[in-house]
Structure formats: C-alpha cells, structure tokens
Write a structure and sequence with these properties.
With 391 residues, the protein is mostly helical. It contains 14 helices and 2 strands. It has helices at 3-21, 23-48, 53-106, 119-142, 147-163, 165-174, 181-220, 225-235, 241-255, 259-285, 293-307, 309-313, 315-335, 343-352; strands spanning 356-360, 367-371. It has a two-stranded antiparallel sheet with strand order 1-2. The longest helix has 54 residues, at 53-106.
Length: 391
C-alpha cells in the first residue's frame, strides 16, 4: 500500500473518530432535519393553494410554534399535578402487588414458592437497567448542551433549514460525483417522503392511542386517567418498548382498588396494542414506511446502545433512512447491476460521461439536472504521405 493510500486510511479513521465524538450533536442535527422536513412539506401544501413561498414558510413555522405553545399551556399544568400523585400511587401499587403475590405463593403446594421470584428481587434485577436508561437520558444533553440550549439549537436549525432547504439540499448533492448527483437527489426525495409519512403516522397513532387509553381507564374507574392516557400517547412514539412501559403505571394504580381491575387494564391495553399493530398501523403508515417488527426491535437495541436515550427515540426514522440507502444504493445501484462481463465497460461509460448542469425547481426544491452537450468530435488528422488511399 502506497504512501497516498496510507494517508487516505488515516484520514478515514480520524474522520470516523471525530464523527463518533460528536454523535449526539449529529443526532440533534437529525432531529432538526426531521422538523424542517415536516415544516417544508406543510409550506408546499400552502404553496399549492396559491400562497407565496416566504409567507407559506412563515405561516408553517408560526403555526407550528403556536400549536406547541398552546398545547403545552393546556396540557402541561393538569398533567404535572396528576404526575405528582402518580409518583406517589405507583409505589403503593407495587407494594399491594407484593402483598398479593406473597399471599398467593404461601398457598402453593410443596416448596414451589421458593422458585417464584418476589417483587423485591425483580426490582433489584431491573434497577441496573433503569439506572442505565436514566444516565443515558441525562447524558443526552450534558455532553454538549443542557436541555434549554439543545432545544434552542434544534429550533434555530429547523428555522434555517426550512427557510432555504434548496441550498442545503444542493450542498449535499454536490458532495457526490457528477454522474451520481441525479440519483442522490432521487434518494433524498424518497427519504423526505418516507420521513413525512412516518411523522404523520406517528402523530395519528399517538392521538388515537392516547384518547383510547383515556376512555378505557375512565370506564374502568382507574385514577389519574388523564396523566396515564397522556403518557400512553407520548410513549407511542417509541414502538415495542413504549406500549409496555405505558402499561405499568395504570396497572399499579388499579391494584390499589382490586386485582381484577389491574387484570382488566392489562387485557385492555394488550387488545388495544394488537388492534393498533394489525389495523391502525397498516392503514395510517401505509406500505412505504412499514417495517418488520424484528428489524424495528433490533434497530432500537442497536441505536440505544450506541447513542443512548436519543438513539432509542430516533431509532425508527434512522432505520427508515438506512433502509432506503441500502435498498437504493447497495441493492439497486450496485448489486442488481453487478455483472463481471459488462462491469469494465460500464466503468468506461461513467468515466466518459459528460458533466451535468443543474437548475432548481422552485415548487419542489428538487435539483433538475441537464446533461451537457456532447463534446465536439476532434478533427481527423490528414492522412500522411506514406499512407495509401483507397481507389
């Protein structure tokens, strides 16, 4: 391996190390990109109604922030008051569960009771996992910013990306070779469409699950139904893990009233999640963002172990992007076209391909590529005096 190749290898390793050190910052940047994509799509819908681009962006950003502030002012105060009671009632529910289990195990025949773990032992086993999640949650912002600065960072980047998305998109496309820029722009369009579909589907799922769980808890007479319903809706953003966590608090509170009520809560939440998985998700998400449950769970575990709590929250959009890149770049552009007989010829065609010129479509923010005119043929050299011309 030559000196230049060693330099390239060292530069690659250093770049990967730098990206690893700023991984939390990159995740915050990805959050801003997701929000900017949603705002930009809303602005495009307003543009189709005849609103100018600048005013559409202003309405989209202002309307989004107004909705968030209004929702916070309406929801947060009652939620905080019930959350304080929730933190007091949940431990009492666990103590009630322990008493009930101890009474059941005493009546078991033989020495079977010694093989059944107690609630205290289960809590001790789960305590390291809970401590890890809590530490990762606080480490999310402590490495670079506190919560306020991180939120401000995301808000500012979202506004900047939404105001001029074409510039940032063209900059990313320009980093690619000229022959592949049109394809990169198509891949970015696919990523944008799937991210918007995921955002809309997730918001609808959160609203449906929150309202449904609130109705179920109110019908069963479980205390603090509003706080538990809001937690169920918020945790719906974390598939697989969120629905399980949302069942713990209402079940513990229901145990304070009667064991049958806790069982009814578990059954109702289980049926609600099954209906969501097999009815709501296919209808809302559609086939374009449908992900196999096994891949979803593996992605959550992988991103959570590498990036902490924020990686767990962003596992699904990150998996969507990774899936599109693997499908479009690795499978379609490389594996499907891999042919040893024609591969050298295709390389020669790429090397001789003319450089493309670019323009921008103002309504879609897409980069339009126009192939340059073919290079004029070089004039043929006159035949030398020693050559024989055909008669």
């Amino acid at each position: 391996m030559g000196f230049a190749q060693w330099i390239g290898l060292v530069a690659l390793v250093l770049s990967l190390l730098i990206l690893w050190e700023i991984r939390q910052l990159l995740l915050l940047l990805f959050v801003a990109v997701i929000f900017a994509t949603a705002v930009n799509r809303l602005a495009k819908r307003l543009q189709r109604s005849g609103v100018k681009r600048g005013f559409a962006i202003l309405l989209s950003i202002g309307g989004t922030f107004a909705f968030v502030i209004l929702s916070t002012a309406i929801i947060v105060p009652p939620f905080l008051s019930q959350l304080q009671q929730l933190t007091q009632l949940v431990p009492e529910g666990f103590r009630q569960l322990e008493l009930w289990l101890n009474g059941v195990t005493r009546n078991l025949p033989g020495g079977a009771s010694q093989y059944i773990p107690t609630v205290d032992s289960l809590i001790e086993q789960l305590q390291p996992l809970a401590s890890t999640l809590v530490n990762n949650f606080f480490r999310l912002f402590s490495g670079f910013f506190n919560i306020t600065l991180s939120t401000l960072f995301i808000v500012v980047l979202t506004i900047m990306f939404a105001l001029d998305p074409t510039t940032y998109r063209q900059g990313m496309v320009r980093l690619m070779p000229s022959f592949y820029r049109r394809r990169v722009d198509e891949i970015l369009t696919l990523c944008e469409a799937d991210l918007v579909g995921w955002i809309i589907g997730t918001l609808i799922n959160m609203a449906v699950i929150g309202i449904t769980s609130g109705i179920i808890l109110a019908v069963l007479g479980v205390r603090l139904a509003f706080a538990n319903a809001l937690l169920s809706g918020l945790l719906e953003a974390v598939p697989n893990v969120g629905p399980i966590l949302s069942t713990i608090a209402p079940t513990a509170i229901a145990l304070l009233d009667a064991p049958w009520k806790a069982g009814a809560v578990i059954i109702a939440y289980f049926l609600m999640q099954q209906l969501e998985q097999y009815l709501l998700v296919p209808i809302v998400m559609g086939h374009q963002v449908s992900l196999p449950p096994a891949f979803t769970l593996l992605a959550q575990l992988a991103f959570a172990s590498f990036f902490g709590f924020l990686g767990l929250l962003l596992a699904i959009p990150l998996l969507i992007i990774v899936r599109i890149i693997l499908r479009e770049v690795l499978i379609k552009d490389v594996m499907d076209r891999w042919n040893l007989a024609t591969y050298p010829a295709s390389q020669a065609e790429v090397a001789e391909a003319p450089v493309e010129s670019t323009t921008t479509d103002p309504t879609t923010d897409a980069v339009v590529y126009t192939a340059a005119a073919d290079h004029p043929e070089e004039p043929k050299k006159p035949a030398s005096s020693g050559e024989t011309k055909p008669r």
